Amino acid sequence: MRTIRCLTSLLRSEDIEHVYVVDNESTGELDALLRDLPLDGRRWSLRPFSENRGFAAGVNPALRESLREGFDACLVINNDASIEPRAVAQLVRELSSSAELALVAPRIIGSDGIPESAGGYLRPAWGMTTHAARDGAEPDFVTWACVLVKADALRQVGLLSEKFFMYWEDVDYSVRLRAAGRLFSVSAIASATHETSSNRRVYPTAIKAYHTWAALVFARSQGGRWRLGGLVWIAVSALSNLVRFRGGTLRGLWLGIRLARERADPAFTSPLRSSAFE
Q1: What is the C-alpha to C-alpha distance for residues 193 and 80, in angstroms, rounded to an integer?
Q2: Which residues of 223-252 are buried (b: 16+ CB within 10 A; e: fewer)?
Q3: Which end of the chain is less packed: N or C, by CB atoms within 10 Å?
Q4: Of 162, 160, 157, which Cα lies nearest the Cα of 176?
């Protein structure tokens, strides 16, 4: 089970004092599985939620708890990712090297060995982002598949915006960091492995809906070019999927537009999302 693989990889690191395991839409099965394993119960704790709170609203309670406990920094990682102790140690070294540096991320490598992200770039005129590398350019954002973030940055800038259910909350946070005068970077040395996902193929309607919803929420928050870019992206996406006869993806696009219009905050309280996917 990928959550177990992720937890055990974290507990091997001497730099990690405690792991908060967030269990969205919990059935109690994960708790039973973890407690049957020979793990040091003093170094991890489970935070179950009966509902699916999405990414930001799932991560934030663990971040708040880590702040209350007085930790200097928090490592956030997806349960479908893993990171070796030496990579964690490298991130700690890099983050502590500069007072201005608020966050550092490893390079994200797929389980198939193909690089996924070394930061991403904004394309406001098209209402989208890209992870395609740009020679000599600093990234506009980093993915929160795995990041190490300073506690003082979380106190200054705040936690992840819960207006996002999933996707784009990491873009939003990077923009907020920059606006606050804080720096972030991608390590040239440390990497994390991210399990290659089949969600886009298996759940085309849901994935397209969540991505569209988040993209439009971000565009609305930025205004200006982003609002126009959001309309451009919808038009291009609709035409592209229409000519490819992707009915499920087109349904997801329309549903995402409706979800964005709903303006649920936090996003997981959306009545439309609950009726469409639960």
Answers
A1: 9
A2: eebbeebbebbbeebeeebeeeebeebbbb
A3: C
A4: 157
Q: Which of 7, 71, 70 is nearest to 36 (CA)?
A: 7
Q: Which two tokens stand for residue 268?
A: 């997981």
Residues 6 or more apart in contact with residue 121 via CB below 8 angstroms: 129, 130, 131, 132, 134, 137, 139, 140, 141
Per-residue pLDDT of the chain (278 residues; tens, 9 = 90+): 789 899 999 999 999 999 999 999 899 999 898 888 888 888 999 999 999 999 999 999 999 999 999 999 999 999 999 999 999 999 999 999 999 999 999 999 998 999 999 999 999 999 999 998 777 789 999 999 999 999 999 999 999 999 999 999 999 999 999 999 999 999 999 999 998 765 555 578 999 999 999 999 999 999 999 999 999 999 999 999 888 888 889 999 999 999 999 999 999 999 999 888 76
Are 205 and 252 a contacting pair, CB within 8 Å? yes
Q: How many C-beta neighbours within 10 Å does residue 32 have?
A: 9
Q: What is the largest CA-CA distance in the chain?
A: 55
pTM metric for this prediction? 0.94
In degrees, to the nearest 5, what angle opens at C-alpha 81 toward C-alphas 167 and 13? 130
d(CA 38, CA 3): 15
CA–CA distance, 63 with 82 (Å, rounded to integer): 19
Total residue length of the chain: 278
SS3 277: helix
Residue 2 CA from chain centroid, whole number: 17
